[in-house]
């Protein structure tokens, strides 16, 4: 099976995207196809029996054009041509409206264009001025006819029928005027043809620019990585294009520069601004063997790093791909809206025909019947209905990405705020997952930094997790190791070595029996043990100089996150394989009331399944690897990621940093997104519910009527309301 995202040209409304999606899914060899109107893309999963040429052919058969595989780096051509055309046709539109309507509103008429005195001049002037508008809107007319022939009528089809009907009727009356029947000058609708096309073009111009704003987060991601890189060749610096970088190359990064590709630092240390990927504003300290991500800004140090992930394998490329794929998935509410949109256009055509026939049956003139027919066609707006959900989803996905959240499907984004139970793994989720020094009881004249340096020097030859905690602390303090001699491993007790003339022992309380000395620090040891610490004694020449507590430290903001979730009415559970005593110490500190401990990974998945089967909406938050079975089992699986192992993650949502408060952000964005979608759908339905009866003429007895020009303006306003309402999601900020 292969998956590809194609860029599509020629879609103007939701009826287009629905018909293309339906056509693609009917083709043999295509497993699943989803079409995104906002991004103008088709996400297609297909069997190996097909190739890209087959997919392009299917798109063409459906009445659209494939522009090939979606490339986020390919900049769209920016031109002022459309703006210039709009200015020219705005002037022409004002001229046409003045000629045709000046007499209606008491403005002075152009003498030789007076419709009563010079009907032929009036008629031919309007006809000549209308021809450029027909040429201007030829793409709409072609699209409307093409989609009608493909049995997938869209908004262009409605406009085309309306324009052709008005034009044909006006041309017929023009012939009658030429033949001397000048009274038909009152029944010309050339201005309607011109103004309908003008308003549609104006609406699409504004709509296109507004839609582009919904993609800004994606564009920002694509533009994060630099175009050039500094490479080290034979000890010399050389600037090359980013595409020339190969895996294994040694690259340089100076203060103020951006990291060119994902890699590992081989020399130097610095602070990097990774806010674009983690949403975290605090710079991250990096040194030898630390990973760096393309696009990070080097704030203060000189580093050299080995290129690892380049091109499509880079973290940024993976993030862009995941965000794009998420916007190409469809939530339940969007599938419902699409289904309605698919049948909407044929229904409007039927209503317009019935309106035309009804007017003739009830004794209205042919002129009134044709005007109402065209008005109904033009006022109907499937765009607003079709854009209601995908626009909001595109903006929300981009907002999530900017806040360090990757949501893999729009359905999960829509439903995130509905979760009732949030289950947290302990190790690596609520805690950092690696031991850190939590407390030092210093009984000597040495500074704490010197205590750490002594222990780290002795522990340097050990790979035990406790030893690693001291090595990390030494690295953070920017200290170097001391020279040791006579190193020995004391099985079950600890380690011993000499530094200078002093003999040191590092280990547990069993050292006291070995050395035959009294332990007078038991009270401090008990305190540390009650706090969940592993105990490390440092003894110098049989004298206790330090007692150190080492434990898995709770993540920053974990306690605040739990508190906020409970305030939101969510039930919080800790689920861990650790022993109950250790788990409860952590849970008490965080304010978690329910703890399930001593469970294996497969047992975790069963517990999650039982919660889901009870009818509750469950979110599982884990480390993404050990918790994979439970993440998949939950309604929504959330994993913590350093931001560099995204592709292999099995969760629905990835936190690109260690800040658990982003779960609150996810829930808040989800809630706001659904609210915006509902507002959009309400406006779309409300608009059509009001405007279609008005276009039919239900309020005609009260002299409240619509004409084709006002209906075109109303339709444009409807679509723009949905666009601007969706753009409000861009302004989301963490509280």
Helix- and strand-based class? alpha+beta
Question: Main beta sheet: strand number and arrangement?
Answer: 7 strands, mixed
**Whole-number radius of gyration?**
35 Å
Q: How many separate domains?
A: 5
* Quaternary structure type: single chain
Tell me what you see in this structure.
About 1% of the residues have low confidence. The strands form 5 sheets. Strands 14-26-25-24-15-22-23 form a 7-stranded mixed sheet, sandwiched between helices. Strands 6-5-7-13-8-11 form a 6-stranded antiparallel sheet, with no helix packed on it. It has a 6-stranded antiparallel sheet with strand order 16-21-20-19-18-17. The chain is 48% helix and 19% strand. The radius of gyration is 35 Å and the shape is elongated. Strand 17 and strand 18 form a beta hairpin. The protein has 735 residues and is an alpha+beta fold. It folds into 5 domains: 70 residues, Alpha-Beta Plaits; 260 residues, no CATH class; 88 residues, Calcium-transporting ATPase, cytoplasmic transduction domain A; 135 residues, HAD superfamily/HAD-like (Rossmann fold), CATH 3.40.50.1000; 122 residues, Calcium-transporting ATPase, cytoplasmic domain N (3-Layer(aba) Sandwich), CATH 3.40.1110.
Properties at a glance:
735 residues; Alpha-Beta Plaits; Calcium-transporting ATPase, cytoplasmic transduction domain A; seven-stranded mixed sheet; six-stranded antiparallel sheet; 48% helix
């Amino acid at each position: 099976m292969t998956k590809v995202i194609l860029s599509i040209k020629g879609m103007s409304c939701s009826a287009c995207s629905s018909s293309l999606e339906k056509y693609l899914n009917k083709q043999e060899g295509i497993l699943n196809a989803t079409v995104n109107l906002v991004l103008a893309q088709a996400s297609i999963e297909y069997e190996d029996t097909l190739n890209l040429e087959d997919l392009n052919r299917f798109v063409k058969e459906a009445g659209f054009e494939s522009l090939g595989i979606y490339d986020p780096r390919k900049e769209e051509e920016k031109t002022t041509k459309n703006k210039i055309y709009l200015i020219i046709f705005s002037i022409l539109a004002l001229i046409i409206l003045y000629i045709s309507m000046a007499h209606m509103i008491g403005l002075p008429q152009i003498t030789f264009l007076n419709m009563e005195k010079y009907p032929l001049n009036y008629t031919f002037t309007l006809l000549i001025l209308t021809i450029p508008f027909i040429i201007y809107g030829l793409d709409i007319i072609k699209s409307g006819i093409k989609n009608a022939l493909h049995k997938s009528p869209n908004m262009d089809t409605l406009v085309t029928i309306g324009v052709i009907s008005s034009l044909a009727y006006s041309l017929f009356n023009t012939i009658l005027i030429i033949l001397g029947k000048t009274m038909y000058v009152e029944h010309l609708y050339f201005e309607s043809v011109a103004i309908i096309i003008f308003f549609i073009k104006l609406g699409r111009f504004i709509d296109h620019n507004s839609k582009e704003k919904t993609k800004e987060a994606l564009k920002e991601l694509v533009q994060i990585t630099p175009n050039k890189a500094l490479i080290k060749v034979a000890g010399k610096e050389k600037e090359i294009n980013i595409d020339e970088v190969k895996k294994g190359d040694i690259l340089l990064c100076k203060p103020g520069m951006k990291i060119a590709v994902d890699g590992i630092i081989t020399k130097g240390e610095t602070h990097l601004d990774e806010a674009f990927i983690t949403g975290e504003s605090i710079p991250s300290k990096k040194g030898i063997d630390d990973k760096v991500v393309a696009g990070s800004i080097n704030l203060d140090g000189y580093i050299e790093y080995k290129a690892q992930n380049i091109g499509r394998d880079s973290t940024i490329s993976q993030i862009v791909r995941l965000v794009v794929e998420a916007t190409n998935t469809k939530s339940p509410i969007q599938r419902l809206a699409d289904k309605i949109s698919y049948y909407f256009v044929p229904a409007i055509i039927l209503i317009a025909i019935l309106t035309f026939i009804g007017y003739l049956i009830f004794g209205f003139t042919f002129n009134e019947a044709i005007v109402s027919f065209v008005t109904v066609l033009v006022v109907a707006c499937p765009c607003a209905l079709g854009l209601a959900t995908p626009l909001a989803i595109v903006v929300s996905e981009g907002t999530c990405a900017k806040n360090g959240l990757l949501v893999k499907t729009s359905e999960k984004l829509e439903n995130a705020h509905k979760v009732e139970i949030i289950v947290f793994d302990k190790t690596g989720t609520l805690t950092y997952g690696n031991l850190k020094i939590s407390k030092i009881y210093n009984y000597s004249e040495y500074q704490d930094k010197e205590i750490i340096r002594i222990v780290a020097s002795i522990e340097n030859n050990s790979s035990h997790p406790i030893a690693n905690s001291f090595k990390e602390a030494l690295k953070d303090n920017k200290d170097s190791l001391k020279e040791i001699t006579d190193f020995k491993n004391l099985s079950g007790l600890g380690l011993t070595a000499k530094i200078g003339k002093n003999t040191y022992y590092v280990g547990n309380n069993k050292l006291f029996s070995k050395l035959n000395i009294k332990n007078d620090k038991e009270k401090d040891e008990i305190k540390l043990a009650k706090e969940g610490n592993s105990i490390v004694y440092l003894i110098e020449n049989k004298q206790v100089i330090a007692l150190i507590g080492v434990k898995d430290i709770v993540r920053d903001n974990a306690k605040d996150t739990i508190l906020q979730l409970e305030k939101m009415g969510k039930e919080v559970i800790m689920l861990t394989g650790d022993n109950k005593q250790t788990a409860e110490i952590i849970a008490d500190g965080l304010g978690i009331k329910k703890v399930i401990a001593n469970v294996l990974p497969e047992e975790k998945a069963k517990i999650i399944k039982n919660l889901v089967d009870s009818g509750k909406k469950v979110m599982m938050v884990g480390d993404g690897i050990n918790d994979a079975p439970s993440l998949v089992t939950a309604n929504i699986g959330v994993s913590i990621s350093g931001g560099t192992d995204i592709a292999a993650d099995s969760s629905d949502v990835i936190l690109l940093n260690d800040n658990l408060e982003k779960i609150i952000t996810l829930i808040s964005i989800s809630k706001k997104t659904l609210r915006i979608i509902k507002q959009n759908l309400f406006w779309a339905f409300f608009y059509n519910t009001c405007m279609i009866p008005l276009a039919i003429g239900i309020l005609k007895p009260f002299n409240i009527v619509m004409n084709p020009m006002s209906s075109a303006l109303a339709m444009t306003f409807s679509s723009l309301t949905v666009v601007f309402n969706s753009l409000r999601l861009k302004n989301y900020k963490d509280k």
